[in-house]
Design the sequence.
């Protein structure tokens, strides 16, 4: 019975994430259209709702081209490596009270580790394509992700210090009160984490790995068909994972702002709350993408190393002082 | 000017010299500008306004098949051969349009007119719409005001042959 429940949970959460991707793509297209005073795709199905299906069918039926002198193994492995870690990382994010695929005691570290693996997919793809633009895109991506990972990890240390745990389910349940949300307790860490999350997902304003005006398509210049589709999918799943992290770590996770009573009904409420928050963060992602221009490469590095990393370190020191004093006051 | 614009270094508003009428950012305002976040939120607010406007259907898009674009006066679309009061074609097969056409898309074969008021009329009057550049020179050259360009622009055909319009088609256009 337990095994069955586990299987159902895994399937439900995984299917939920995978089905969110096409709608995210549609939302991206329509929101970008609205921001640019256009209408966007509205012909396929009611309100364009079937557009993602059409997109996926198109991708599936497209010819897959492997460049003549590409490294065939790595070339095929790249899209998979870009997608799998992001999908794995979602397994530890609590989507509701007590609802996650795996409740790891080191969940936060697991997400950080898994998402940083995605860079292999991108740099493998970039290198294996045997194309200058792809290689440059891959290199940029690895440099960018390594740089921003440091800022991200450092900003999370202060969160871990305030919460006193690295388990994501405990972090989420520790923010059941509205004023206990980490966005109020760690506003600086929130800003740093959010910015680093954009860079980590290669989203505008940090999408230098695929910067169209300079690199044609960056690391996926040579990709076509469903291999390109996998990169696309991986990018959006990674975006969902990062949004889930933002919600869990800073926006109170599945908590609607007050401690929930026991009961299955309230568990459902917690899932809906998580979904709503996730949707808001994802909307913000899309909104930012269609507002800000792309950073220049040196600006990106400067912001990461000279801006976010020192700020995150200062935040750790400040958090340490406050936490120590708070403990001293409480134990007295 | 060696610094980058994201820290406010080379922004013309901050580097403007005194007396140029542009205020130099100082103190808190300069710090806020260097922080970059206020400008980002300003931009986000702006795009959000556009989003709301577009949701209220204030878009520039013309939803084409359902909504047709209103063409301007003087728009040059497909050709039409005009008829006179008796329902005969006005054309007298003078070959002026065929001569003036820069794309060589008009083909006329004349025959004797059965009517007393003119010598000739076109037996064949064909326009190859695939060659036509819609310049309107035929309309200007015509001495009888027999050919004119209509405002029709959205006409579909599935074969090349359909795109060669004959006299009947042009008269009914």
Sequence:
């Amino acid at each position: 019975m337990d095994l069955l429940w586990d299987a159902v949970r895994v399937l439900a959460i995984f299917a939920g994430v995978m089905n969110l991707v096409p709608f995210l793509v549609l939302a991206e297209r329509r929101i970008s259209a609205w921001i640019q005073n256009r209408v966007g795709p509205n012909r396929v199905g009611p309100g364009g709702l079937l557009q993602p299906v059409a997109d996926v069918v198109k991708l599936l039926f497209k010819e897959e081209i492997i460049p003549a002198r590409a490294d065939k193994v790595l070339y095929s492995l790249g899209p998979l490596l870009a997608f799998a870690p992001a999908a794995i990382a979602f397994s530890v994010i609590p989507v509701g009270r007590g609802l996650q695929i795996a409740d790891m005691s080191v969940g936060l570290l697991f997400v950080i580790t898994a998402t940083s693996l995605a860079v292999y997919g991108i740099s493998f793809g970039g290198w294996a394509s045997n194309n200058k633009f792809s290689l440059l895109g891959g290199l940029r991506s690895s440099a960018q992700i390594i740089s921003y990972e440091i800022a991200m990890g450092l900003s999370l240390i202060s969160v871990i210090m305030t919460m006193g745990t690295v388990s994501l389910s405990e972090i989420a349940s520790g923010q059941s009160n509205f004023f206990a949300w980490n966005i109020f307790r760690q506003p600086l860490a929130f800003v740093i984490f959010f910015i680093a999350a954009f860079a980590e997902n290669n989203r505008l304003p940090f999408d230098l790995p695929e910067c169209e005006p300079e690199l044609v398509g960056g690391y996926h210049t040579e990709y076509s068909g469903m291999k390109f589709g996998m990169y696309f999918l991986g990018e959006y799943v990674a975006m969902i994972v990062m949004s889930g992290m933002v919600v869990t770590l800073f926006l109170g996770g599945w908590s609607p702002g007050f401690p929930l009573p026991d009961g299955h009904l309230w568990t459902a409420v917690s899932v809906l709350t998580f979904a709503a928050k996730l949707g808001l963060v994802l909307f913000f992602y899309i909104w930012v993408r269609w507002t800000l221009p792309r950073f220049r490469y040196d600006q990106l590095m400067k912001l990461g190393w000279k801006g976010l990393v020192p700020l995150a370190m200062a935040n750790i020191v400040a958090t340490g002082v406050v936490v120590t004093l708070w403990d001293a006051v409480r134990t007295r | 000017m060696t610094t980058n614009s994201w820290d406010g270094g080379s922004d013309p508003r901050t580097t403007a010299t005194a007396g140029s009428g542009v205020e130099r950012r100082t103190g808190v305002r300069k710090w806020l500008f260097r922080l970059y976040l206020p400008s980002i939120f300003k931009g986000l607010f702006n795009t959000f306004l556009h989003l709301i406007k577009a949701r209220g259907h204030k878009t520039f898009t013309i939803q084409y098949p359902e909504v047709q674009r209103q063409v301007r006066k003087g728009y040059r679309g497909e050709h039409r051969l005009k008829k006179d009061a008796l329902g005969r074609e006005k054309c007298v097969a003078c070959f002026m349009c065929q001569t003036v056409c820069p794309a060589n898309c008009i083909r006329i074969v004349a025959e004797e007119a059965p009517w007393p008021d003119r010598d000739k009329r076109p037996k064949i009057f064909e326009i190859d719409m695939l060659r036509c550049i819609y310049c309107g020179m035929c309309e200007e050259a015509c001495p009888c005001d027999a050919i004119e360009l209509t405002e029709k622009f959205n006409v579909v055909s599935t074969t090349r042959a359909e795109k060669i319009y004959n006299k009947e088609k042009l008269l009914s256009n």
Observations:
- The CA atoms of residues 11 and 149 of chain B lie 53 Å apart.
- Chain B has six helices and five strands.
